[in-house]
Predict the structure.
Amino acid sequence: MQIDPHSMGLVLEGGGMRGVFTSGVLDAFMKYNLYFDYVVAVSAGACNGMSYISRQPRRARISNIDYLAKYNYIGLRHLVTQGCIFDQKLLYDRYPNELIPFDYDEFFKHSAGFEMVTTNCQTGRSEYLTETHDRQRACDLARASSSLPYVSKITWIDGKPMLDGGIVDSIPVRRAQATGHKVNVVITTRNYGYREQGRDRKQPRFIYRNYPRLRVVLSHRIEAYNEQLQMVEDLERNGEIVVIRPKRPMEVHRIEKDIDKLERLYEEGFQLGEAFCTQG
């Protein structure tokens, strides 16, 4: 299939630390100057997508792998002190403003075509949000899209309570199609044939007690994700999408701290991204 980044969309799944696979693929895209005009991204995919939109290769890799051991930004102490299992002050303040400066000017040149997915806690529905000039709101969108339920505080965007976009729309292919992109490139963080084996459970009323519609979607999260995985495979079989996914069963967990595992997954993503860019 001929890849046209101006007419095709790019869809980025999340997955917490599994997102290092996506950062590898995107670094390969940037090496070959492959930039899509439209990108829709969720959770970790949104964070990786920001460095892709700002044309900063290896930035996501440095933040996710190189600095993990140095700053130990995953842990219960952050949940206690900041209300999030990730060190949000480091990730959304020190990283972009000090340690790995984010190129906001370059980002805003291209961000009109970049949508980050969040879940509205009041409606229980996905929202697809863009920012083209406000630095703080851009960071807030990435934080909201990545705010995992139970282990992250709710992020308020435009006066609305938001959590991780993957709660409802983990692989936003349908959104890309709805925006007029009939054929899309999809980067997922699970190998072909994977399905969640857990069971959905009704959320007790004391969980997010002010957001009953959020409890409903959380109660069907596994079922919804497995349906999306099946949809991706069906669309791929029909030639409507091209999928870049890990070849091996995933050894990296959503909250992973093993640098060697993360390194292997990043390298797999980079190699597959290179193969994609040089095919034919």
